[in-house]
Design brief:
29% of the residues lie in helices and 39% in strands. It is of the alpha+beta class. The protein has a 5-stranded antiparallel sheet. The longest helix has 15 residues, at 3-17. The radius of gyration is 13 Å and the shape is globular. The mean pLDDT is 91.
């Protein structure tokens, strides 16, 4: 992980953990991306696997773009960009169904 992404990752984890809609999500770093997902049961044995849901891409020092993961595995950019807090608010209001646990 790039050292420059450690602080944004911790900040995003704190923002998401503080809300019931996103509590229990994980944040992982891939390049300049902060990927948010959940561990969900898959297959007949119910084994938990990572399920990436949304991605914040660092555009500059204070701006992120927001993408969503399609069922095909590809990432689709959304028209949203702004501060991390603004992107989290978009997730809370417009994309909460994407980050909610599948069962709930």
């Amino acid at each position: 992980m790039k050292d420059a992404m450690r602080i944004p990752r911790a900040r995003l984890e704190k923002l998401l953990a503080g809300d019931e809609r996103t509590a229990g999500t994980y944040v992982r770093v891939h390049g300049d991306n902060l990927i948010v997902g959940r561990r969900e049961p898959w297959g007949s044995d119910g084994r938990l696997e990572d399920d990436d849901r949304v991605r914040l891409t660092k555009l500059n020092a204070s701006t992120y773009g927001l993408s969503v993961k399609r069922h095909t595995g590809r990432w689709d950019r959304t028209p949203f960009s702004g501060s991390m807090e603004e992107m989290v608010e978009v997730i809370f209001t417009l994309m909460q169904h994407l980050v909610a646990p599948w069962g709930g």
